[in-house]
Amino acid sequence: MKCLYSFIRSAVGFAVILLSFNTWAGEIRIEIKSGSSPPLKNLVRNGGFEKGLEGWTIARSEDKGWEVKLSDESFSGAHSLYVKVADEDGRRRPRGAFQSLNKAMLDGLMAEGRTYYLSCRVKAIKASNTGGKYCGAGAVLAFFDADWKQSAGVHAREGDTAGEWKKLVSSPIKYEDWAKNTQVIANLAYSIGEMWIDDICVSEVASLDVHVNGGPFRQVLIKGNDDILFDSGRLPGETTSFSKSIEGFCYDLFTVSVVGDDGTVVRKTLDLSIKEKQ
Length: 278
What we know:
By secondary structure, the protein is an all-beta fold. The chain folds into two domains: 9-40 and 205-271, Immunoglobulin-like (Sandwich); 57-203, Galactose-binding domain-like (Jelly Rolls, Sandwich). It is built from one helix and 20 strands. The strands form four sheets. Strands 3, 4, 16, 17, 18, 19 and 20 form a seven-stranded antiparallel beta sheet that branches. The longest helix is centred in the middle third of the chain and has 5 residues, at 102-106.
């Protein structure tokens, strides 16, 4: 499952999720609270390309020197999107695929005044982002007005990643009242090279409050799925109380691990996933 969150809809509109979990092991107590405005879910359909190119449209043109296709090489799952730009003709414009998020707007899953982030996993060879945020390998989240003349967007891009997968995260963007259309675009822009892109996600931010008491304990580690969001490092001796507030998005599972002074590890998880594949 990729980048999914659970959400609650009340009879009078969207409610606020307040989730609190506690666990005891010896003398160490972990409490995790998340208070966020739902829905907290990935708004990109088939962002991991596990359903092929379903939901995506390849941006076609008559220019030569480029290709966009499904790849069996992936960060997670079985597939990713592959883009290759071979020559100067191919690099004259961005090459890739796009998806409209207008249905999410119409269904109320995106709302005016809320703030959204874009993230993706990218592997790039010989790609260049020396031209700034508009160039290189990655993705774009863009809002447009009704006439497609006014626009605003955020980019998650990188140059050559030396053949390694890298997670890219955009800056935040607010859904303004003039925006009537929105797209997420995966492309290799104004650069020769190759790109594989996977796990594309657009979502709001989930806030997380972590409190640890008891112990003493020596270290606190917070993860979102497999990503480390926070590592306290070695805490001062005789630490018996610790609190941390963080923000995370496009994660469905948060894990807090606490190492006691005797080396015992206590863990607690907070699962915000929807139990169905997107």
